[in-house]
TrEMBL record:
Pfam families assigned: CheR (PF01739), CheR_N (PF03705)
Enzyme class, broadest EC rank: transferase
Alphabetical keyword list: Methyltransferase, S-adenosyl-L-methionine, Transferase
Name by which UniProt lists this protein: Chemotaxis protein methyltransferase
Function: Methylation of the membrane-bound methyl-accepting chemotaxis proteins (MCP) to form gamma-glutamyl methyl ester residues in MCP.
The keyword Nucleotidyltransferase appears for this protein: no
UniProt key word Zinc: no
Gene3D superfamilies named among the record's database cross-references: Chemotaxis receptor methyltransferase CheR, N-terminal domain, Vaccinia Virus protein VP39
Length: 292
């Protein structure tokens, strides 16, 4: 999901020229989305869901929402990623919330690389990587730190998301030039290859960055195959729509995968206040796992 967030949808654009979303179907979808995605859909989201899912119904050639609900009952995992993509909007950018990257550049990465120089491993997880801007921005500052220090540390970034469309974009690593607004001219020159001909107006991330980033599908509410430990987890603008019990469970699972003293980065509108005793606030939406 950096970020998959529900957004308001113009009521006049939904429900036109298609079936209506009835009470029974909407309640099923609310329960399904909460169970599988941890997102609580309020009644005010009915028109959003109806408008967005009409396109999915047409793509699947289904006649109504009842048929779509039946599809989810038969094959919940097969359609889950598509449903998550339909009802969410991936809002992300390169170097969003720059103070987090400043902390990495000026403090954390130099310290980690020095501590691990004799054969250690460095792992960062972008949980909810969306279309890839966050993990590739992390890869830029990581690669720069490795080059500055001449470090041979085994360093990798794991990037996960639920949305198949977002992951497809992330794997391609190709972005319109107007998506590079947060990237300095120096980094554009160093870490992107500008397209030519039919690819004019596009840029692709450098192979070095792609080597540092592993992109995989993952539902944060389901089992996690990775064992960690991670030095840092970025989960920014993901948990804002989760309810309190879901947030609490997720934060404790993050704590279990972080190194002692590892860092958890949240989004600008998110907080861990009153939700976990495993972390301490050490910066603006930056939390450190407590050492015992």
């Amino acid at each position: 999901m950096t970020m998959a967030t529900l957004t308001d949808f113009n009521a006049t654009a939904s429900g036109v020229g298609g079936p209506l979303l009835g009470d029974t179907e909407f309640q099923f979808l609310r329960d399904f989305v909460y169970q599988h995605c941890g997102i609580a859909l309020g009644e005010q989201k009915r028109q959003l869901v109806q408008g967005r899912l009409l396109r999915r119904l047409r793509a699947l050639r289904l006649k109504d929402f009842s048929s779509y609900c039946e599809l989810l009952r038969r094959d919940p995992e097969g359609e889950l990623g598509e449903l998550a993509s339909v009802i969410s909007t991936n809002v992300t950018s390169f170097f969003r919330e720059m103070h987090h990257y400043d902390l990495l550049i000026n403090d954390l990465l130099p310290r980690w690389l020095e501590a691990k120089k004799n054969g250690g491993r460095l792992r960062i997880w972008s949980a909810g990587c969306s279309t890839g801007e966050e993990p590739y921005a992390l890869a830029m500052v990581l690669a720069e730190a490795l080059d500055r220090t001449g470090s041979k540390v085994d360093a990798r970034i794991l990037a996960t998301d639920l949305s198949p469309q977002a992951l497809e974009t992330a794997r391609a690593g190709t972005y319109a030039l107007d998506r590079l607004g947060g990237v300095s001219d120096e980094r554009r020159s160093r870490w992107f290859m500008r397209g030519e001909g039919s690819y004019e107006g596009w840029a692709r991330v450098h192979p070095r960055l792609r080597e540092l980033v592993t992109i995989q599908p993952l539902n944060l509410l389901h089992d996690w195959p990775m064992r960690g430990p991670f030095d840092a987890i970025f989960c920014r603008n993901v948990v804002i729509y989760f309810d309190k019990p879901t947030k609490q469970r997720l934060f404790e699972r993050y704590a279990g995968l972080l190194e002692q003293g590892g860092y958890l980065f949240l989004g600008h509108s998110e907080s861990m206040y009153g939700l976990s005793d495993s972390f301490e606030l050490v910066g603006r939406t930056v939390y450190r796992k407590r050492t015992s």
